[in-house]
Amino acid sequence: MHLLKRTFKLSELDDVAHAIIKIIPPSRVICFEGELGAGKTTLIKAICKQLGVIDHVSSPTFSLLNCYHTTPGSDFDQVVHIDLYRISTEEEAYRAGIEEYFYSNALCLVEWPQKAFGLLPDNYMTVRLSSVHYDERFIEIISSEK
Fold first, then answer.
1. Please, which residues have CB within 8 angstroms of residue 33's CB and are 6 or more apart in sequence?
2. Cα separation of 38 and 141, whole Å?
3. What is the model's pTM?
4. Digit-coded pLDDT (tens) for 108-134
């Protein structure tokens, strides 16, 4: 089910992050899809900022995941940023323990989720980003709920 489809300017990134936060699924798993340079990590940084993450937010491409803490009183005690770009197989993601985070109480923000679709919970949300122009992106948000 489509939850949102629109083009936005990079200056509207905080508004887009806010819209995503308002519709976080019960599983607390949000998958981010898009080509390299589409803005997945930049959007995740904006989401983390609005959630009150107190740690430095950076791409976990080499570490596979970064765990961030939020300010007291936030809706999420922990935000986990997962980047599966370097994973070759779903089995490799499983052996790395990625699946455990999907079923924890943490908010999981997952880049390159197609590398481990079989490990995802049933009701995750997908955010697809594509570059329209150097300062414009197209976003499509889809719920996996049937």
1. 40, 112, 113, 114, 126, 127, 128, 129
2. 15
3. 0.93
4. 999 999 999 999 998 999 999 999 988
Beta strands in the chain (DSSP E): 2-9, 29-33, 65-69, 78-83, 107-111, 125-133, 136-143
Q: Which amino acid makes up residue 142?
A: I
Q: Could you tell me whether strands 29-33 and 107-111 are parallel, antiparallel, or unpaired per DSSP bridges?
A: parallel
* Contacts (Cβ under 8 Å, ≥6 apart) of 134: none
Q: Cα-flanking dihedrals φ and ψ of residue 20, to 5°?
A: -65, -45
Q: What is the pLDDT of residues 21-48, one digit of tens each?
A: 999 998 899 999 999 989 999 999 999 9
Say how far apart CA 129 and CA 13 lie, in whole Å.
12
Write the burial class of residue 42 (CB in 10 Å: 0-12 exposed, 13-18 middle, 19+ buried).
Answer: middle
Structural domains of the chain, ranges and CATH numbers in brackets:
2-143 (3.40.50.300)
- Which SS3 state, helix, strand or coil, does residue 20 take? helix
